[in-house]
């Protein structure tokens, strides 16, 4: 039997309309990790934050919206953008980390699975459409794509919906300046088998997990405000450690994926890196160029959404991909036959990369 190409048969995304600007944090009271007030003004904190991360604003879900609602909106668009009927899906994989958190509760709710909730909202009746959630940190959507690729390639199934959605705004410590990084959103893709003669779709991938000292680079912890001892936990990260880890590991992961795909770096038209920090992504691209002794022009090669959308975790790459494929990303475009790279890093610590031909 002919080996199929594994392609993106449809994409969709949903970005909440509620805009939170950097100025909205001026009235926050920020504390250091050891519970002390900063000796500089919020204006200075925000100015330095924007200079490093590139973030000017981010999007938060409305109070009545849940993570699964965002994923459903993206899933509808992906199906409408595809060539299949919803009943032809074999799996729905929902990459997420904190479930459906009801606004202002700080409570993680993963039962029932978000994937099953999306199936219900889509009114899919076929019992053979199997649903499960994938918790893999920010690289979760890309890991779901890798799983879909492996399942389809095995002949076990043909069409897999992979969703990446998160409402990180509901896991934030308002007294931690790092909380300004995170945001909400969702992206969805239909990963399908295609029997075209030309080689296209997923050409190669790489992934790894480092869980020694890296395990706690990004984890849940108490508020920086020592007076807020209510037992709630918030997302916490060791920014410098994550930066150093990402710089060392993401570029080498991309290199492995390129080797496995047989594609040269100079043939790549776009590099979609998880939108965690603009300076970090630019440094990763420089490191990648150094591995191949190639000067890389990030302005032309690497689309960025973090300035307006912030870091919405598992949603960043599928949102960028959807915008790119549907000509909604100003200054960037791709066409049939172009090779692109997608790479991500996140809690675990996990790294993954996929080389894809449009």
Automatic annotation (TrEMBL):
One of its GO terms (molecular function) is 3-oxoacyl-[acyl-carrier-protein] synthase activity. Residues 132-210 form the Beta-ketoacyl-[acyl-carrier-protein] synthase III N-terminal domain. GO terms for biological process: fatty acid biosynthetic process; secondary metabolite biosynthetic process. Keywords: Acyltransferase, Transferase. Residues 258-357 form the Beta-ketoacyl-[acyl-carrier-protein] synthase III C-terminal domain. It comes from the Bacteria. This is Ketoacyl-ACP synthase III. It comes from Marivirga aurantiaca.
């Amino acid at each position: 039997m002919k080996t199929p190409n594994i392609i993106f048969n449809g994409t969709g995304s949903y970005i909440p309309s509620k805009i939170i600007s950097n100025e909205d944090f001026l009235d926050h009271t920020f504390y250091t990790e050891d519970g002390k007030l900063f000796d500089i003004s919020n204006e200075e904190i925000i100015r330095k934050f924007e200079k490093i991360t590139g973030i000017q604003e981010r999007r938060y879900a409305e109070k009545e919206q849940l993570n699964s609602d965002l994923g459903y909106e993206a899933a509808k668009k992906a199906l409408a953008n595809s060539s299949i009927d919803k009943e032809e899906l074999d799996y729905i994989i929902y990459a997420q980390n904190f479930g459906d958190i009801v606004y202002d509760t700080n409570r993680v709710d993963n039962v029932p699975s978000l994937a099953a909730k999306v199936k219900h909202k889509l009114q899919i009746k076929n019992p053979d459409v199997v649903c499960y959630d994938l918790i893999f940190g920010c690289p979760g959507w890309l890991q779901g794509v890798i799983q879909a690729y492996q399942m389809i390639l095995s002949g076990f199934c043909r069409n897999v919906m992979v969703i990446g959605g998160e409402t990180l705004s509901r896991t934030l410590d308002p007294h931690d300046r790092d909380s300004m990084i995170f945001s909400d959103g969702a992206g969805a893709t239909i990963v399908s088998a295609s029997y075209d003669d030309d080689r296209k779709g997923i050409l190669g991938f790489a992934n790894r997990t480092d869980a020694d000292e890296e395990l706690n680079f990004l984890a849940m912890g108490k508020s920086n405000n020592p007076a807020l001892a209510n037992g709630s936990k918030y997302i916490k990260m060791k920014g410098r450690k994550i930066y150093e880890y990402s710089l060392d590991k993401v570029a080498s992961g991309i290199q492995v994926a390129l080797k496995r795909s047989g594609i040269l770096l100079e043939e790549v038209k776009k590099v979609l890196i998880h939108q965690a920090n603009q300076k970090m992504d630019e440094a990763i691209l420089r490191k990648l160029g150094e591995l191949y002794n190639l000067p890389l022009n990030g302005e032309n090669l690497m689309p960025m959404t973090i300035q307006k959308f912030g870091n919405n975790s598992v949603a960043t790459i599928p949102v960028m991909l959807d915008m790119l494929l549907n000509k909604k990303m100003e200054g960037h475009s791709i066409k049939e036959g172009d090779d692109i790279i997608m790479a991500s890093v996140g809690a675990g610590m996990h790294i993954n990369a996929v080389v894809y031909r449009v």
